[in-house]
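Ticket #4471: structure export looks truncated?
Reporter: QA, pipeline team
Priority: medium

Steps to reproduce: submit the single chain below to the structure queue and open the exported record.
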Amino acid sequence: MTARLRFLPGMTALVLSVLCGYLWTQEDRLLSFTAAHLGSALLCLGAPASFVVVGRVLGCRADLLELGAILLAIAGVPMLIAHGIYLFSIRTSVNAAADIGGIGIAILGWAALLITSLACTIGLPLARPSRRRRPTEADQPTQRQDPVSWEP
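Actual output as written to the record:
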């Protein structure tokens, strides 16, 4: 795979992270409070999943995809906690206006998700390709036949 295509998994996660934060801010304008937070939470969960899916389709190294997905999942935890606070405790945009704790967690989680997906976008193309080559038919062991037979 060319180095130019290796940025696509990270870029997919970055776009989903940006949309996750954008949808968070649209709770009063375009969507209802619950729909905005549920959609943003799904995009937050979709960032690591899309990173792995796009990476596998393009044939990126499996160890780097696993590492990136774990880091993206960890970075998304504060954002998911903030969504839980807003959906299960605050419940309305009127109550959210007086909130000072949940928004701090949300901004921290969104920043972590953006930084991690940006690092995956930059890091995956800079990583060296795997040194292992694909096995061919010549690499398969052949069955040896013993010249001496012990059967009568």
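Status: closed, not a bug. The export was complete when the record was re-opened. Leaving a note from the reviewer for reference: Residues 62-90 form the longest helix (29 residues).
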